[in-house]
Each structure stands twice: as structure tokens, then as C-alpha cells.
Specification:
single chain; three-stranded antiparallel β-sheet; three-stranded mixed β-sheet
Length: 139
């Protein structure tokens, strides 16, 4: 399998009024501070983009883990929460992944999410760097 590099250009004011554009044109949007941080909240923000990337990658890792174990899932969903926190050392991130897996019992669902957390590149990149909580529910 080949490597892949995403290239995104960010211009303007960054997270507060900036614009992002991928080199292939598939991603093109403006950024705004959320209302909770005193911004207009009228555009996406880096935390939402990170949550979308991690959540989609994590579900792919869950599907891979299920396939490797010959487990059939009837549904997969994740609500990914990325929190921008401000502490003594400045700004940081915290994450919560709320995973729902259908067609399996709770023990299997938990085992699959634990395996996915070892497979997913976003999980690997954040491991030991930010607090991460994974809540798994069999549905």
C-alpha cells in the first residue's frame, strides 16, 4: 500500500476567520471561533475538523479489527468530542469517543474498540499526549 499525504493550505486569521483549502479542492471552508469562545460560531473550527478525521479513521479501524476477527457488525457509529481546554500550561486538547456497535455483545464491542484504538493512526498520534476516553456500547 502506498503512502498518502494530505495537503491543506490555511490563510487569513487561522482559527478565527481563516480559510482552509485542500490541494485537490475537496475541502474548502472558512474557520470561526465557536460562540463558547467568544466567536461568531458561523463556520467550522479546527476541533470539529479533528473530530471528523479521528472519528472516521477510528470507525475504519473498528471495521478492520472486526474483519480480522471475522466478526460481522450490523452498524457502527461514533460521536467524537474534542475539547479545547485551557490550563496552567496553556491550551490543550482532550477527547472522548462514544462508540456504538451493532450486531455484537458488549464484550465483543469493547474488544473491537480496544483493538481499533491500537490500529487507528489518530489514536497512535495522541496516545500519551492528551486525555482520551473511549465509551463503547453494543446496540
Amino acid at each position: 500500500m502506498a503512502d498518502y499525504t494530505a495537503v491543506v493550505n490555511v490563510t487569513g486569521e487561522g482559527r478565527n476567520g481563516g480559510r482552509v483549502q485542500s490541494d485537490d479542492g475537496h475541502l474548502a471552508t472558512t474557520l470561526a471561533l465557536p460562540k463558547e469562545l467568544g466567536g461568531a460560531g458561523d463556520a467550522t473550527n479546527p476541533e470539529q475538523l479533528f473530530a471528523a478525521g479521528w472519528g472516521s479513521c477510528f470507525l475504519g479501524a473498528v471495521r478492520l479489527a472486526a474483519s480480522q476477527r471475522k466478526v460481522r457488525l450490523t452498524s457502527t457509529a461514533v460521536d467524537t468530542e474534542i475539547t479545547l481546554v485551557h490550563g496552567d500550561e496553556g491550551f490543550g486538547l482532550a477527547a472522548v469517543l462514544n462508540v456504538e456497535l451493532g450486531g455484537v455483545d458488549q464484550d465483543t464491542a469493547t474488544a473491537l474498540t480496544e483493538a481499533a484504538h491500537q490500529i487507528c493512526p489518530y489514536s497512535k498520534a495522541t496516545r500519551g499526549n492528551i486525555p482520551v476516553t473511549i465509551n463503547t456500547t453494543a446496540v
